Amino acid sequence: MQKELFGYRKLMWRQVLCIIGYIFSLGFLLLLFYWKPEWDVWCQCTPCDLQTANIMLLRTTVCISNFTDY
Hints:
By secondary structure, the chain is α+β, with helices and mostly antiparallel strands. The chain is built from three helices and three strands. One of its GO terms (molecular function) is metal ion binding.
């Protein structure tokens, strides 16, 4: 299993644009971001180093081997 850690910093103007998007989409965008929280982070934040990050995303990958039964 591999783990990757990414740091993000919130930007006020991006948060305001997302709130406007929530209103104009009648809440659909908010529901979409509820299902896909990483999209919410990508829309409201900018990548930065881990020391200045407000939000951190952890991505894990699992390698699945193919087993065959004979």
